[in-house]
Structure formats: structure tokens, C-alpha cells
Design brief:
Blueprint lengths: L1 H24 L3 H143 L1
Length: 172
């Protein structure tokens, strides 16, 4: 871009420079034409050099853009790798949550069964306790009746013994 501006300025100043030189020396038309052709050749050479520099700059910029695109592609690939890793971690968390859910389910079943077994044992204990209390009451009643019967029998024996002694005393 700078080269193009420079060539335009040089072209603009060429007639002034050639006019001042012609006024002093007054060259011939052939010399002027030769001089103009040389100037034109120099300008064409400068334009070609400038175009070559522009092409080189374009190639350099294209190469830099290619490098930048490659870097962006590498960064995108890294982000994709990171996203895949996060997806793997999320899958692991989902698997662990499923395992915890399964464990909780089986633990609830086991605790429910344990509660049923304990309730059954408590129920059996209460039934056995009731039966034991009934047996004890029956035994106490039976013992009380037996004791009563024994006391009554013992008192009858004593009364009979006393009657027998009273009869003996009466007879005497």
C-alpha cells in the first residue's frame, strides 16, 4: 500500500523534474522519449516490485491465517476432548447414582424384612408371655386350691383328732 502511494507521488513529480531539466538544457524529443521510456520502465519495475511485495505479504498473511486456523482447530479439538471427559465423568456420576439407588432399594428391602422379623419375634414373645401368664395364673389357682384342700384336709384331720381325743376324754 505504501509502495503504491510512493509510485503515484513519483509519477506526479516526474513531469516537474523533467520540465525543470528541459528548460535548462532543452533536450531533443528523442532524448525526451528515451528519458520517458526509461522512467516508464523504472515505474513498471517499481510496480512489479510493489506487486511482488503485495503478493508476498498476501502469502505471508494467508500463511499466518492458516496457522491461526490451525491453532483454533487445535483448541477446538482440546475443547472437544475436555467435553468428552466431562461426559465420561457425568456418565460415571450417573452410574454411581444408579448404584446408590440400587443399594438403597435393597437396603430398604432388607430393613423391611428385618422389621418384619423383629415384629414377628415380638409377637411370638407376647404370645408366649400371655400363655406363660395364663399358665402361672392357673398354677397359682391350682396351688391355692391345692393348698386350701390340704389345709382343709389338715384341719379335718386335726378336728377328727380333736374329736377322737374329746371322745376319749368323755369316755374317761
Amino acid at each position: 500500500m505504501i509502495g503504491v502511494k510512493l509510485t503515484i507521488i513519483i509519477i506526479a513529480l516526474m513531469p516537474i523534474v523533467s520540465f525543470s531539466a528541459t528548460a535548462a538544457e532543452k533536450p531533443t524529443i528523442e532524448e525526451r522519449l528515451i528519458h520517458l521510456e526509461e522512467g516508464q520502465k523504472m515505474l513498471n519495475q517499481r510496480i512489479e516490485d510493489t506487486n511482488k511485495r503485495i503478493d508476498d505479504l498476501r502469502q505471508d498473511m494467508n500463511q499466518r491465517f492458516g496457522d491461526i486456523n490451525q491453532r483454533f482447530n487445535d483448541i477446538n479439538r482440546r475443547f472437544n476432548d475436555i467435553n468428552r471427559r466431562f461426559d465420561d465423568i457425568n456418565q460415571r456420576f450417573d452410574d454411581m447414582n444408579q448404584r446408590f439407588d440400587d443399594l438403597r432399594f435393597w437396603l430398604q428391602i432388607a430393613l423391611g424384612m428385618l422389621a418384619l422379623v423383629i415384629a414377628g419375634l415380638v409377637g411370638q414373645f407376647l404370645l408366649i408371655w400371655r400363655r406363660l401368664v395364663k399358665v402361672e395364673l392357673k398354677l397359682e389357682n391350682h396351688l391355692a386350691e391345692t393348698e386350701k384342700d390340704r389345709l382343709i384336709a389338715f384341719q379335718r384331720e386335726e378336728i377328727e383328732m380333736l374329736k377322737a381325743q374329746l371322745d376319749k376324754l368323755k369316755v374317761q
